[in-house]
Amino acid sequence: MKADMIVGIQWGDEGKGKIVDLMAQHYDVVCRYQGGHNAGHTIWVDGVRYALHLIPSGILNPKALNVIGNGVVVCPEALIKEMAQFDKLEGRLFVSDKAHMILNHHILIDQAKEKLRGAKAIGTTGRGIGPSYGSKIERSGHRLGELRDTEKLTLALVEFYDENRALFSALGIVTPNYETLKKELDGYAKVLLPFLTDTTHMIWTCLDENKKVLLEGAQGTMLDIDHGTYPFVTSSNTISAGACVGLGLNPKDIGKVTGIVKAYCTRVGNGPFPTEDFGAEGDQLREKGHEYGTSTGRARRCGWFDAVACRYASRINGCDDLAIMKLDVLDGFESIKVCVAYEVNGKRVETLPEDLENLKPIYEELPGWESVVGCRKFEDLPETAKTYLKRLEVLTGTKIGLISTSPDRNDTIIL
Ligand code: GDP
Ligand code: IMO
Ligand code: MG
């Protein structure tokens, strides 16, 4: 059996949580493969709101197993806090012992460096994501499996703090002493050790036994460290290829890829956003779409569907289809803009350039509709909404497999 995947197409917050939760009802295993608790996946079930950051969204399906793969950076404190929301996680949650840890110093470095960047700040979530992946790449990171010997780990960290004393004092960071750190790590070990395992072999076995496996992406394609709007990106490979590395799969293990995309566009944090609307319509999108971050509560920047970026994202992820989210947020707009190309140095460009700062979006305007909220059948959509969706299919070169018309699991059109 191959593993299916959902992946964010824009700058994150597309509605991945709702779709993973919906799909998880039909899967045996749900896996996260990159990112950390910078992710915020909101799920509404029967009027109850769940906000997940590290635990896969399959946790709301009592029958599904949930895996946090080696490619995720895990803040032990954040994971333990999130785990406390759920009863009986033993046998339902499995965490890779190869996943790197986000420790306190990573969080403090992230926040201190953002302050130093001033006007050039990335607008990170301040969760230590970049510094933790940085430690991993420069080979000074520590993996969850090292919690099996906290004395050795504590000694290694204290030595690291001593060697880097100058850096820490320049950033105004106070590092813990041996006793404090050992106590902290022992606390993590006590809770987390029963959940640590070799998730790579576990997933291989699941696939060999024809179990249905779903891979849950975090963030979005335009935040990918290699293929996004660098340096205003996160520090992992958010695209579908990241799932192979982040779980120990090979490309032949991957089955259907579904791209999750909003019917408009948002971005939180700094960096280029060609279709951003700074006027009243941008504000209307923010208020109607409740576009405030799940993790940080920050107001999201809002704008129009960018078909050029979506076409690029669909190709790079190998999307078999797209899930169009939050169509209801466009209810009541007289007309709706879609970016079909960019103007770069006076020329029309239909592919994504490296520099997204110095261009102008070229829009096509389509007629709006009164209401689609709660709609569950394609036939019941207003004609103008159908025309909008069909136009998106043509512009992105990808068929639409699902349309979402409210946060509720059931308000979904499956095509
Ligand atoms: P994720 O990070 O991709 O999982 O997305 P977030 O959870 O950060 O943000 C998406 C938000 O939109 C959440 O608050 C969802 O409850 C909400 N949402 C998802 N689908 C729909 C929809 O079709 N309509 C509306 N109005 N809200 C939706
Ligand atoms: P989900 O999974 C939206 C953004 C941050 C910042 C940049 C780098 O909910 O879609 P980081 O803390 O990762 O170093 O910040 O990435 N960012 C997200 N934006 N949704 C997310 O996750 C995000 N995770 C990180 O705002 O611009
Ligand atoms: Mg989110």
Automatic annotation (TrEMBL):
Q: Which residues bind substrate?
A: T294, S295, T296, G297, R298, A299, R300
Q: What is its EC number?
A: 6.3.4.4
Please tell me whether the keyword Iron is annotated for this protein. no
Q: Which Pfam families match?
A: Adenylsucc_synt
SUPFAM superfamilies (UniProt xref): P-loop containing nucleoside triphosphate hydrolases
Keywords, in A-Z order? Cytoplasm, GTP-binding, Ligase, Magnesium, Metal-binding, Nucleotide-binding, Purine biosynthesis
**NCBIfam families, per database record:** PRK01117.1 (NF002223), purA (TIGR00184)
Summarize the subunit comment. Homodimer.
**Designated name of the protein:** Adenylosuccinate synthetase
